Amino acid sequence: MATKSRRSSKKTKASTSAALASSSVEELLLAALERGDDSFETGRYLVTFKEGAAEEGMQSLGTQGMRVASARDFKDQAATLADVGDADAVVFPEIGVALLGAEPAQARGMSAFAEIASDSPIESVDPEYFAFVEGTGDEYFRSQGEEGESSNPGEYLRGFIRAAETISKDLGLGLKAQPETDVEAQVLGATWGLIACRVPPSTRSGVGIKLAVLDTGFDLGHPDFVGRPIVSQTFVGQPVQDLHGHGTHVTGTAAGPRAPAGTTPRYGIAYRSLIHVGKVLANSGTGSMAGILAGMNWAIANRCAVINVSLGAVGGVQPAYTAAGQSALNNGCLIIAAAGNNGPGPTINPANSPTIMAVASLDRTLIPSSFSARGKIEIAAPGRDIFSSWPRPTRYRTISGTSMACPHVTGCGALWAETSPTLRGLALRNRLMATARPLPFPATQVGRGLVQAP
Amino acid sequence: MAKGKKKWIVTTSGKKSLKDIKKKLTESGFSVDQVLDEIGIITGTSSDDDVERVRKVAGVTDVSPDEQVDIGPPDAPIQ
Which of A177, A99, A197 is nearest to A410 (CA)? Predict the structure, then answer.
């Protein structure tokens, strides 16, 4: 049986008390400042209803026991949020959107990570973000004697810091946020691997996509994953908690956060995917085919669209892995595996199965890594000097291997899967290969080339 | 595991009921550990002699020894 560990963060709890539907922007900003949150999220949620289903959707909020205020109740529909009192939600019928307070949303399991039933009137649930007037940032830039472009995210963050600072000053709290000179690098900073795969410019997040990592487990208390719903299961008789590190690193690349805390660069791809951690290798880094197959069976039963298998053994094609790969494709899933670190030797199993996608490793200069196996290769991805999460207290590590290349494809696969419900199984594999950036090396070394995000 | 017995991975065609195959495997002296419904695979323990009977069960397409996988220690330079 799968154990679902849904960890609610202190961060979320702190914001819950402040993020009411009627909270003022100042209250929300102050709460964000107090919790040291630079995600731009207010703590509230915006629910978008499907076209023509707004009425039904709004009624459904009421039938779920929410106190709902409607913009229609205000003159010219000019709803002032401060006037809605203790309402749990405010609906805007003309645009088919509702604003939900943090607590009523969480109490009903509504979040940006929750899956939405296909017959639901709800199209999507998204975090509400702070919005800043561009001029705020420009003004701040000038006062700092710098020049800036108006579409620069760094400016928004500077604006955020300034706004929060002003509010705290006005409230007499004496908090002084330090404007950071490298704030732009923090916002735009990403690992070389993510940049090579064109992940930072992608508008996709993997939302609604189940992403499985079959590995040594995961550091379930890693600070970068606080508040993230994680489904986990062990197949080796040890707790899922990763005491090796490999699984935490691989999961970080595939599904780590968009904006890790502090100066840490972005290293994760599908930051809103639903992570499924299957521990198929013990903390020693060892496992058996039986456990790996059990993990594949579990990930397919959970209909994970992408299944990362950064492991394997030297040897010929294993019919069991080929059968598992075929079952995955039949069920709209795709198993993606590391080609092996035995280069220039041949692709290891399970990556050498025809129904499983094999990922080769590239160096920063986009040449094949010397350790990367050759032969049956579908695609290549960054695998040398890859920065990602590592179990506490280390928190981050830079390591190399086809194990690190594989989750770049898995993460990008989740982003592609998000773009269309038809991109599953074989169609997803074909799309990943068709959109790869060609490289001047034989297909036996890099397949169709470097994986690219949508 | 009894002496002389090994762990095996039994792959099936997916066209026959896994329940029926499991029954035949047990009758052949094969001790079933897990039945993986989604991927049509049964794992378990058997002697080399008994496994020859398992190979002949209708719907079984492959019987291979379970193999160990080792990704190495956490401080390995290449992972």
Answer: A197
